[in-house]
Amino acid sequence: MAKKVLVVDDEKLIVKGIRFSLEQDGMEVDCAYDGQEALDLATANHYDMILLDVMLPKLDGFEVCQSIREFSTVPIVMLTAKGDDMDKILGLEYGADDYITKPFNILEVKARIKAIMRRAAIGQPVAPQHTEENIIENGDLVLDKSNRRLTILGEEYNLTSKEFDMLLLLVTNPKKVFSREDLLHKIWGEDYPGDERTVDVHVRRLREKIEPNPKEPKYVRTKWGVGYYYM
User: Fold this and answer.
1) Residue 12 phi/psi, 5° resolution?
2) Bridge partner list, 229
3) Residue 79: beta bridge partners?
């Protein structure tokens, strides 16, 4: 089945170029030119990837990303014309999986899309299997690897793909401290061009979702000067 991508940008020439290139690779592409149109399409359809510009009419990319994260874990790559690090970090704070800075090479965009889809596919089985090896229980946490679900004390929590992968790695290696570099390589891949602050942002966002008190984490803990671990 062809992969389906939503491309969102108010610059129609950019959208046209990305669409043509992705369709050449056999992907199905929908297009949106403002934030509200993008949110409507993302709500009504299933996508394997969303390319989302930051600067959009009606709703900006951060607002769209945050809204989509309320109901979907679809991989989102932010497109930004600004080189400012704050924009990149903000994109990750709102739930984006990656970012690409304009102007970009379309070959880089396609390579990034394929890498993220490949990693996402690894965590998604063809059919759900409720075997014991797919259910990880550790303390209050239960992770269902086949359905990518987390429950804590019976309550389900909606995590993004990267948040789930990070938590799964920590939970299956209790008390083992992973450095930021370790987590970046294991979760994002050796070829990921981002820096270690990406890990800090995701850990902070994960804690805000699952910790009773994010300032005094019970599950994802910090070994100061070393990295993160699950207790």
Assistant:
1) -65, -30
2) 221
3) 53, 100
